[in-house]
Design brief:
Elements lengths: L31 H13 L6 H16 L2 H7 L5 H28 L5 H4 L4 H24 L3 H17 L4
Helix pairs in contact: 2-7, 4-6
Length: 169
């Protein structure tokens, strides 16, 4: 077999096949009928209910239960309450922007291109508030769980995101 690189020179580089290596059709030469059939199969298999969704939701429930999260947040004197309120407020801004974009614009108004129908800075603003809220919440809960605070909050975050992915919006 001849070894060639992307630039066509021989020597070191990525191996490229000399010609067709299998009986599979070339994806670049599909007819419109084939593309329609492929899209139909893909749209039938778009269930968000899969193994990693279940994993993250179960993990979040276990973490919530075994850390006694709600009781600690409300009753533990080590929690920095003011910082937790600020972090929760920032996360609330993030969720409000997300609900506006996903539920109101996409689901209720039928708009698929958010940037054409709303201010283009909303997504970066929501990202900034979400990240800042996570950092401030981590600082607020650090005295309770120390180095375990990050994995605990991340697991709860992922479980919440996976739960939200199952909503019919």
């Amino acid at each position: 077999a001849v070894v060639s690189t992307q630039s066509g020179h021989y020597g070191r580089g990525r191996l490229l096949p000399e010609g067709p290596t299998s009986d599979e059709p070339d994806i670049n030469n599909l007819t419109e009928e084939d593309r329609t059939a492929i899209d139909a199969v893909i749209s039938q298999n778009k269930s968000n209910f899969n193994a990693h969704t279940i994993f993250w939701m179960v993990a979040a429930m276990l973490v919530f239960n075994y850390t006694d999260f709600a009781n600690v947040v409300y009753n533990d004197a080590r929690v920095r309450g003011d910082m937790l309120k600020v972090g929760s407020g920032m996360i609330a801004v993030n969720l409000t922007v997300g609900a506006y974009l996903v539920i109101y614009l996409s689901y209720m108004r039928g708009k698929k291109d958010w940037t054409a129908h709303t201010h283009p800075a909303l997504i970066p603003i929501a990202t900034l508030f979400g990240c800042a809220g996570m950092v401030v919440s981590t600082i607020a809960l650090w005295p309770v769980w120390t180095f375990l605070t990050l994995p605990i909050l991340f697991t709860l975050f992922m479980g919440t995101i996976m739960l939200a992915s199952l909503l019919p919006f």
